[in-house]
Amino acid sequence: MTIMLYLIGLSLVMGGIGLVVFLWCLRSGQYDDLEGAANRILFDDPPLK
Amino acid sequence: MTVEVRPGLCPGPAPARSAPSRDGREAPGSHFCDHCGLPVPLGRRFCCPGCAAAFDTIQELGLGRYYEQRLLDPALRAPRPEAAERGDLARHIESLPDGTHVLTLALDGLQCGACVWLIEQVLARESGLLQGRVNMTTRRLRLAWRGAAEEAERFVAAVERLGYRLVPFDAAAQAAADDRTGRMLLRALAVAGFAAANVMFNSIAVWVGFGEDMGPATRSLLYWVSALIALPAVAYAGRPFFRSALGALRAGHTNMDVPVSLGVLLVTSMSLWEAFHGGRHTYFDSVVTLLFFLLIGRVLDHRARGQARATAQQLLALRVTDVAMLQPDGSVLRCAAETVPPGARVLVGMGERIGVDGVVERGEAPLDASLVTGESLPVPAGPGTKVFAGTLNQGETLLVRATATGNATLLAECVRLIEAAEARRGRFVILADRVARLYVPVVHSCAAASFIWWWGVQGLPVAESLLIACAVLIITCPCALALAVPAVQVIAAGALFRAGVLLKSATALERLAEVDIVVFDKTGTLTEPVLALADDPSRDREALRVAASLAASSRHPLSRALLAAAGPVPAAEAVEERPGEGLLCRTPAGDIRLGSRGFAGDPAAPVAEGPELFLARPGLPPVAFSFRERLRADAVATVAGLQRAGLHVVLASGDRACVVGPVAATLGIHDWRAEISPVAKVGLIESLRAQGRRVLMVGDGLNDAPSLAAASVSMSPSSAADISQNVADVVFQGAHLRPVATALWTARRARAVMRQNLALSLGYNAVMLPLAMAGLVTPWLAAAAMSGSSLLVMANSFRARVREGRAA
Fold it and tell me: How is chain B split into domains, by residue range?
């Protein structure tokens, strides 16, 4: 049954990665302007500095 | 929310005018300015030189695509370059240690994604700028650059030339605007979601294991893993509830968060104890799932009201202004309005807002007092006239001696009046908290009773008796109950938002549902905020055409009303505008004048009811134009609908009886009061409330603000004075009155659904409570029942949407 230990560990690590990525997105302001992001995709100019 | 699109500016498949002729100045057949989209007289492409310059700038930079891709919303401010007041930038620039300067500005006039693109492209072409990024949600522009701090002026001017208005964000206002609560809730939701999913994996294994042959050691391991995930998650994601519960307990009452917090803490400690002693049951899954569901409700609730809150903050930010104080030595010092001592002299230039209350010493100019009084027509001011903070100077520079500043101004006085009225209104106890006040003692006594029964009477060991008591708390943990109200609120608020109604107060919906009497203000509420030309069969068509051709070059509200009545006409050349007097056009045959009675009129002409204009042409008698208010198109139908639904409708106006009477008759309102002062209006509302009536006040002017605050619940049109919008619980947009009725019906329906939800979750508790007290509840049953009831309540909440065309 040691496989269970690995699997539990693995599931926690995978879930944890998802959580960390989400918190990073939130911290770096990617959820600050959802409306702007939805509109920006319509303009295909080179990215601004 | 439906967006009306100005003709010719829609980026549809076949735009009527998608590519304007880029060389000539003529655009035959269009009545709208090529740049800002405001109406222009026939034969002109631009409404003003500013727009023409903006158009040229955009074309020179090769950004002409902006005009093809944008979508103008007539309800918003048009992108017309104006000489606007702008505070001192330097005070707001933040300098970082690495030599970078950062400035955040409130952006007024943002219409759609194309505006964001245009602003960012224009800024990208400015040298020295590190970042110029628009946040479309909060309508803010963030500038970052290296070099001299003064460069900010150049960047800001580049954007202002396009027709947007920029106002630096006050540091304090900006800190308040940062949505810390929203982010915290979202983080808590993420953590709770992660924990709920992972704990549930383990729990399902355990539940299956009961039927198979899972050993106690494996079960213990799974419990420990669950505990490892759940404990930090509860500590982190539970904070919003713990904090709110503590606050309520300190204030000496309970709210829904008290049983939630208590249940969460008790169940967690009990599960921990079980895991420690190798027990059969733990409830970690229930705890984190409960938090996850509750946080979904909190996040949605916060989002729904965020829009209204952001709008109010934007208004406040746009009001931060400086004043030019005249020093004794003749020099001018720009400083914050609050720091001006009474008695100081202040210069107010054209297009600048007066920052103080005072008396005009020199200069004559029309003042736009719409912010303060809601009155759309400018009032003339000259030496000796008293002026108030918040009014806009539309003419030459005025020298004002300050009599009151900062907190002593009329504007601040009104704010205090409103605060006093709001304090009298008292705390409204929301439905959920009223239930919680009954629910908490009942549930907790049941838990205590079952413990005493099993331990004292049945002689079970303390630990097992405690387990049963805890199971009672878990099964009754008010998950569905706590979701019952916010879920409905989110759905109703979303439906109202799409109908152009913004709910500003969290309890507005519940208060609206109880309303049985509606008090309307007249001007600007039942009537349209702009004036219309009165019909006069004796007036000849030619006079109107001539008057409109002069009016075409003016932005005065009466000129616009004339233009609207006359339809497209060619604009007269060489029209001179004399502030406070009127318009003058010199022709070879003589002067044509359009303006006030003294300027162009016949002093002997009969005095009209409302505002008037006169047209004087050489060799012809003066022609009078009178203007009147026009009822909102659906006012009659809406008032009739309210009365049919059994609501008592009252019309209370400060206007004269001879004006109010006919309006009330047209609308079928029998109970109307005329010439009623703001204080008397508050008295009327308070006497109605003293009779036990629930009053909805609908008004727009500053004079209505105290009565808005005194009413049980209040609504303002979005054209209202800013201060009224800030007081009102609900703000509605557009030219119609129907949103008032829509809000009322939605609120009533929402209340009905809330009650159903509460009944559903209480019914579920009534069934489960005896089972738990009998000691029959297992963890899987608890988890399934809890999630099931929450989902049922959420599904039922979707019925809060009112179907179109359905009245109550």
Answer: 90-177, 497-528+632-749
| Beta carbons of A33 and B218 less than 8 Å apart | no
Residue of B3, B65, B201 to mutate for A, most A C-beta atoms under 10 A? B201
Q: Residues B143-183: pLDDT tens digits?
A: 888 888 888 888 888 888 888 878 776 555 555 555 677 88
The whole-number pLDDT of residue B371 equals: 58
Structure tokens at B779: 């963890």
Interface of A with B (CB under 8 A): 1, 4, 8, 11-12, 15-16, 18-19, 22-23, 26, 31-36, 38-40, 42-43, 45, 48-49
pLDDT tens digit string along B26-72?
A: 444 457 788 887 777 667 778 777 888 888 888 888 888 888 878 77
CATH of domain B497-528+632-749: 3.40.50.1000
The CA distance from B390 to B357, in Å, is 9
Chain A, chain B: beta-carbon pairs less than 8 Å apart: 69
Cα torsion B721, B727, B732, B733 to 10°: value is 30
Task: Collect all residues of chain B within an 8 Å Cβ-Cβ radius of residue A49.
Answer: 124, 129-131
Residues facing residue B105 across a β-bridge: B141, B168
Query: CB within 8 A of B603, min separation 6: which ones?
Result: B597
* CATH tag, B90-177: 3.30.70.100
- Partners of residue B575 on adjacent β-strands: B585
Instruction: Give the pLDDT confidence of B726-760 residue by residue, as tens digits.
Output: 678 888 877 788 889 999 999 999 889 888 888 88
User: What phi and psi, each to the nearest 5 degrees, are found at residue B534?
Assistant: -75, 145
